[in-house]
């Protein structure tokens, strides 16, 4: 089984998103990107608290939410383990797309866009692209 170093949570206190939801979202992103796989152990609440200076109950709330969604399983005395992955394409399958996106991101940065500007632009295009998928 893999160690818990596969995911490092970064908390943005200015985002307006609840801290526990940031942990849930970042865990799901790691699952989608293949950074976390079934059998991997998530960092312990203590490890997350030491790295982020958040309340241990916040970490436990996030892990309970992930467990409720069937993504992880808490094993008493052992930790919290990933039970299933998310996403379709394997990391190798999305390599060309990742390279194109990295190139686009570098061009956006060279054009003077800040990280938040790039994120807003990407999210707007993403939302518009997937609008037609909603029934």
Automatic annotation (TrEMBL):
Record's Pfam families? GntR
Keywords from the UniProt entry:
DNA-binding, Transcription, Transcription regulation
> Which InterPro entries does its entry note?
Tscrpt_reg_HTH_GntR, WH-like_DNA-bd_sf, WH_DNA-bd_sf
For the HTH gntR-type domain, which residue ranges apply? 17-85
**Domain of life assignment:** Bacteria
| PANTHER family to which the protein is assigned, alphabetical | GNTR-FAMILY TRANSCRIPTIONAL REGULATOR, HTH-TYPE TRANSCRIPTIONAL REPRESSOR YTRA
Q: Any idea what this protein is called?
A: GntR family transcriptional regulator
Q: Which organism is it from?
A: Streptomyces gelaticus
């Amino acid at each position: 089984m893999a160690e818990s170093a596969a995911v490092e949570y970064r908390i943005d206190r200015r985002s307006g998103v609840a801290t526990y939801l940031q942990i849930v979202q970042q865990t799901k992103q790691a699952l989608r990107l293949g950074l976390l796989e079934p059998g991997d152990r998530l960092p312990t609440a203590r490890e997350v608290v030491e790295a982020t200076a958040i309340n241990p109950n916040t970490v436990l709330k996030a892990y309970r939410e992930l467990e409720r969604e069937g993504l992880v399983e808490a094993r008493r005395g052992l930790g919290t383990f990933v039970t299933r992955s998310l996403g379709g394409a394997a990391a190798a399958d999305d390599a060309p797309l990742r390279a194109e996106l990295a190139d686009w991101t570098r061009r956006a940065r060279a054009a003077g866009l800040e990280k938040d500007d790039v994120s807003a632009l990407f999210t707007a295009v993403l939302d518009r692209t997937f609008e037609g998928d909603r029934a």
